[in-house]
Amino acid sequence: MFEIKNLSSNQRFLLNILVPSLYLLPLLFAYLGPKNFGFGYDQLVYTGLAIGAAGVVLWILSMLTLGPSLAVLPGTDRLVTRGVYRYMRHPIYVGIVLTLGGLFLACGSAICLVYVFAVVIPLNVFRAREEEKVLRQQLGEAYQQYRDNTFF
Fold first, then answer.
1. Taking the alpha carbons of 84, 96, 73, 135 in that order, is the dihedral positive or negative?
2. Is 102's pLDDT higher than 90?
């Protein structure tokens, strides 16, 4: 089992670097790799850009709402339930998926879309589950009530 509290400071530092780099890796590949914008369909370019823009907005709003509670590794001393967190427990993860998925749809990168489904989504689901375990331990019933009243 994965336990954040059992990690050394070096391991925490590496995770703080490694996890965000897993989101940046396909961006680098999409930038450098071949492009088939919208897979040959102009409408997919615009749809992908709209999805990606919505993801960026959600991602930024989520980070701004969290403020000083924002961290790569889970743990907090207070529950944030305002803004987008009123409706969703993990809007940053949803924003990341929408941003990357939309961008890769727009630029027509099949390999990067596969990466989103094979790496990014499972990584975010894993992170959400681990985060929820820690928050249940730290915040108890208050977190459980919040969890029961919100979407992913």
1. positive
2. yes
